[in-house]
Amino acid sequence: MQTALNNFIVMEKNLHIYNTLSRKKEVFEPINPPFVGMYVCGPTVYGDAHLGHARPAITFDLLYRYLQHLEYKVRYVRNITDVGHLENDADEGEDKIAKKARLEQLEPMEIVEYFTHRYHKNMEALNVLRPNIEPKASGHIIEQQEMVRKILKKGFAYEINGSVYFDVEKYNQTNDYGKLSGRKLEDLLANTRQLEGQDEKKNPFDFAIWKKAAPEHIMRWPSYDRRKKDGFPGWHLECSVMSTKYLGEQFDIHGGGLDLLFPHHECEIAQSKAANGKESVKYWMHNNMITIGGQKMGKSLNNFIILDDFFTGNHKFLEKAYSPMTVRFFILQAHYRSTVDFSNEALQAAEKGFNKLMKAGETLNKLKPDSKSSVNIEKIKSNCYNAMNDDLNSPVLISHLFEAVRIINLINDRKESINQNDLENLKSLYKTFVFDVLGLREDKSSGSKETELTGELIDMILNLRLEAKKNKDFATSDNIRDELTKKGIVIKDTKDGFEWEIES
Q1: 340, 58 contact by CB (below 8 A)
Q2: Which 3 state secondary structure label does DSSP give 463?
Q3: pTM of the predicted protein model
Q4: Is the pLDDT of residue 11 over 70?
Q5: Which pLDDT does position 479 carry in this prediction?
Q6: pLDDT higher at 49 or 449
Q7: Residue 278 · residue 251 · CB < 8 Å
Q8: Is 103 a residue whose pLDDT tops 80?
Q9: Which fold does the domain 292-437 belong to in CATH?
Q10: Contacts within 8 Å (CB) and 24+ apart, 137-140
């Protein structure tokens, strides 16, 4: 069974991914196969994770799982931002974590540890695999200081009043600042507003790679130049430093949300090229946004729903609780480059779809083989690989899996047949794509109607009904069936006894 799948992997190892840099789908060819280096921008840990945080985590978990399935040796790095992320992208305002610490009257690292732990707990509930390395910005200050010195030495930055700014105009003379986002420097010059407190910059679009700490700034370190006063690294710098430290000066994939494309990822490209003299990333990948009522879901608009609220139903936008696997399936039902608009109706449809997949998996494990097959498992398998190889097209993959569900139910109803070899291949395919690649799993957590105890009670009642039928007590048998039907229990009599499910 596994040998057949391995042979198929070799045949179908033709992954295409959309490269934001080239604005087209490209064949995925690692720099140093079979090794793959992947860096993804992680959370700034000053609050609980919301649905918008779940999307990049699940998107790049899908990619990580599929690359591993294709037998690549992946080093996956996802950072934790715990310093340097100011309240706005114009290098002004208070550090987000320091502000939260001040409001809560805690040390900044207490805030970091508390919300990092809660983020990990949410990711585990969503069955998001942990990265191989999860570095923190505050743990790499020395490396960030060194990159500041390198950029200064090469003439692509300037120091004013103890702060260091990247000289975008100087860089653009020999490079293409804006190549990732498609922005032109002349447009930035015309449209970037000079903010109060930014007049020390040569140009308003220049960005800080090191900031001098004001007297009230809590999170501070000795300057990149010991003759200067204390400071802290710019937000963009950490990702350039940590990605190249753990993956090398050139690596395969850099991922993150579309909201990070500019200025964060654009600045990363410039910093890394200025410091190391080469392009650091071969493929840039960006997931699209979660929206609510057409607006991006986020803390700045105060329209976000934290993941814990989804799991408990404790939010004014939610009609009920939704299990972590319902949330994961909801996100996977859309292609990662398309927007996903939140609604209770969409989540409830995802819940039904997820339950249908899980029920079919249970039925599959009970199927008995025949001497011959009337179904084409190889075609479904090929379709599944083609969907994933087409830029991780999870909604199309799911549609092919529902075709497998249809076939499973037909075989169970004796309307189609399957032999032993095809049955084993179908089981392997189902496990591979439903559980290993999509990362779904049986979910009996909050929000699910079906619990282990409920299942045992329903089985007990239906066994009593079977006994009544054997004794020709059809009145009792019919009464049990009618009462369970009223409770939303769908019963199906089989030659071996019965099957049931809770109507969603």
Answers
A1: no
A2: helix
A3: 0.86
A4: no
A5: 86
A6: 49
A7: no
A8: yes
A9: Isoleucyl-tRNA Synthetase; Domain 1 (1.10.730)
A10: 137/79, 137/80, 137/81, 137/82, 137/83, 137/84, 137/233, 137/238, 137/242, 138/82, 138/83, 138/109, 138/112, 138/219, 140/238, 140/241, 140/242, 140/245
